[in-house]
Amino acid sequence: MVAVEGERAVETTDGKNGQGGKSAIDMLHGPIWNRVLMFALPVAATGILEQLFNATGVAIVGNFSGGEDTQAVAAVGANSFIVMLVINFFIGVSLGANVVIANAIGRGSMDGVRKAVHTAIVMAVAGGVAALVIGELGATAILGMLNVPADVYPLALLYLRIYLIGLPVILLYNFEAAIFRSVGDTATPLKVLAMAGVLNVALGLTFTAGLNMSVAGVATATVLSNAFGSLVLLRLLVRTDAPIHVDLRELRVDMMAMRSILRIGLPAGIQGAVFAFANVIIQGAINSLGTTVIAASSAAFNIEVFAYQVLNSFAQACSTFTGQNYGARQVGRCRRVLAICYLEDVVATAAAITLVLLFGRSLLMIFVHDPEAVDIGYIRLTMVFIGYIFSMAYEMASGYLRGFGISLVPALLTVLGVCGTRIGWVMLVFPSHRSFESIMLVYPISLAVTAALVLGSLIVYLPSRRMPAR
């Protein structure tokens, strides 16, 4: 189907069997506020649902691991930031694919879309295999650096080794989801994730409660359910018409498309990985405080990210909407996208944080039963949510800049603001103030520093003025 914008034809995405066309969002015409919501809310729901299934896995090992329930929860928690480091990096690279495809759609370059889509699929699988090999070779060394307690270490290593096996399909799913989102279809990844998540819970219960596999059970369930989800999305892409149709015979790397994806995605990936790396450093400090603190922090983390998914979904919307409109030479509309995304993000994130804080202690008790662990976990929720005020500011600015193809600057500033502040805090402040509260204080401080830096770069760049449409 072709929509006419002035004298330039822009192909939209009606697809076979209703795939693509019914779920895609026209980002180039009409009101913005409702379409941002149509994009962001399914993305938030996808992230929340994914975390809910992950949290269910933690709850399963916490309730069906016999006498080692606390150690099992701590084992999964000790790995959470390692997993995030790898996944965040490749999700960042997949955002590069999202922006490149969205920009090509805005320009009306269907050949550019086709090349970027097929290149992204190959990059996902190849990157997953490379990460799998490197991760397996360095698993013992990585956990050794994190001060994992002796009673937790064997379970943590077992969980990590199994999880790493699933990296190729986990990354494939994320790249496929980015491809769908580039045309505004955020509903399809949500539906597929829901199916994969139900499978994950069912398998987790079977392996852990039925077969007494403990952490090995939930890790195996995660791998198998992600394999299912990635294959379903691939099948849908094969059955979808242009512009995001995948022809398996054309799966190859186009060097120009790969360079464009990496130019935007690599800095974004580094930005995401830096967060996880800095959190790995913090996790090491948390691990030094004992098993109860590890379990409490893990439980809180599984809850707090619900609110973060809401926050981040509007930043993704800002990046994708900006990418398409910049490609279509509608720079003024890009500015409106930024303002609307900011406003809607404030309202939605505030609502999410309020709900979590109101029911925080009850939610924590799903994962940990020790009253001391619940109190410690609630401290983390409170401190991290204070930091989300600043996180929202720089995530949105970063997404906006990324939509214009400016990815390196916010990534470097994030490295400086997040990584520098958190590593410095753990090295200089924590040794003389060895408490959980001391560690948690670094979250709002580091996020405030980063927000100031990235917002400053947005003011300096003014991309909508400096970079008029090409």
TrEMBL record:
Which cellular compartments is it found in?
Cell membrane
Q: Name one Pfam family in it.
A: MatE
Q: What is its main location?
A: membrane
Record has Disulfide bond as a keyword: no
The membrane-topology field of this record reads: Multi-pass membrane protein
Membrane-traversing stretches: 36-61, 81-105, 117-146, 158-180, 192-211, 217-238, 261-282, 288-311, 337-364, 376-394, 406-428, 440-462
Q: Which residue stretches does the UniProt record annotate as biased composition, category Basic and acidic residues?
A: 1-14
Instruction: Cite a GO CC annotation.
Output: plasma membrane
Q: Does the keyword Transport apply?
A: yes
Q: Name one GO molecular function term.
A: xenobiotic transmembrane transporter activity
For this chain's UniProt record, which GO biological process terms are given? monoatomic ion transport
Q: InterPro entries, alphabetically?
A: MATE_fam, MATE_MdtK, MdtK-like
Residue segments, region Disordered? 1-22
Alphabetically ordered keywords of this record: Antiport, Cell membrane, Ion transport, Membrane, Transmembrane, Transmembrane helix, Transport
Q: What superkingdom heads the lineage? A: Bacteria
Role of this protein? Multidrug efflux pump.
What family does the database annotate?
Answer: Belongs to the multi antimicrobial extrusion (MATE) (TC 2.A.66.1) family.
Q: What is this protein called?
A: Probable multidrug resistance protein NorM
